[in-house]
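User: Can you fold this complex?
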Amino acid sequence: MSHTHRSKDKLVARIRRLKGQMEAVERALESEQPCGDVLQLLASIRGALSGLTVELMQEHLSEHVVQAETDAERRQAASELAEALRTYMRGE
Amino acid sequence: MSHTHRSKDKLVARIRRLKGQMEAVERALESEQPCGDVLQLLASIRGALSGLTVELMQEHLSEHVVQAETDAERRQAASELAEALRTYMRGE
Amino acid sequence: MSHTHRSKDKLVARIRRLKGQMEAVERALESEQPCGDVLQLLASIRGALSGLTVELMQEHLSEHVVQAETDAERRQAASELAEALRTYMRGE
Amino acid sequence: MSHTHRSKDKLVARIRRLKGQMEAVERALESEQPCGDVLQLLASIRGALSGLTVELMQEHLSEHVVQAETDAERRQAASELAEALRTYMRGE
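Assistant: Here's the predicted assembly.
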C-alpha cells in the first residue's frame, strides 16, 4: 500500500482507535450496559469508519489513479476504486 | 443490557469478529498490501457493522419498547432508539 | 398515515422540495452540466432524504409504537419500523 | 456532462423514475396511507439513489479521470470526485 508510506502511521493509529472502540462495545455488552449506550457506540464507530474510508479513497484516487506512472496502472487503480465504491454502497 | 441476556454471547461473538476484521486492516496497512484490498476490507466491515446495528435496534425495539413494563420505561427506551437513529444517520 | 395529520403539510412540503431537487438533476443532465455538479446535487438529495426518513421513523415510533392503543397495534407498528430499518440499511 | 452523452438518456430515465417514486410518497402522505408503507417507499428511493450515484461516480472516474486529455483536467476531475465522496458520506 505504497501511497500510505507517508501516512501509514496515521492510518494505523486510526485503525487502532477503531479497534479500541470495538473493545468498548464488547465490554459494554459483557457488563450489560444500557442498550442505548451500545447503540451510540456503534453509531460512532460507523462515523469513524466512514471518515477513514473516504480518506483512503481520496488518497488512492490522488496517488494511484491521478499520479499513476502508466495507463495500465491507472486503469487498474481506477477499477479497484470503482469496485470499492460498489461494495461500500451495497454493504451499508 | 438486559435484552441481550439470551443473545449476549452471539452479539459478543459478532463484535469479536469485527475486531478481527479491524486487525486484518491493521496488518494489511503494516505489510503494505494493495490499497484496493484495504478498501475492500473496510467496505466489508461497514456491512457487518450495519447488520449488527440493525439487529440490535430491532432487539431494543422489541424488548425494551414493545415489552416495556411501564409507560415511563417505554418512553425512555423509545427516546434512546430515536437518538441512536439520529446519530447513526448523521454519522455515516 | 394518521400520525402525520398534524405534520402532514410539513412532510408534503419536504417531499416536494426533494422532487424539485430531482428536477434540478434532470435539467443538469439534459443541459450537460459538469458531472461534478450533478454528483453534488445527488449527494444533497441523499442528505435530505435521510433527514426526512429519520424524522418519519421517529414520529412513527412515538405515535404508533409508544402511544399505541392496544398491544396488537403496538406490535404491528414496531414490526413495520423494524422492516423499514432492514430495508433502509440494506438499500443503501 | 460530456461523459453521459452516450448514457444520458438512460440516466435521465432513472432520474424520472426516482421523481415518480417521490410522487408516490407525496400521494401516500396525502391519502394518509399507513406510515410503514411510506417508510418502505423512502427506503426504496434511497436504494435507487445510491445505485444511480455509484454508477455516475464510476462513469466520472472512467471518462473524466482515467481518460482525461491533460493532467490539469485529470486533477480537476479527481478533485470533483473527491468532493462528491466527502459530501456523500457526510450527507447520509
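Chain B touches chain D through three residues (CB under 8 Å). Chain B has three helices and no strands.
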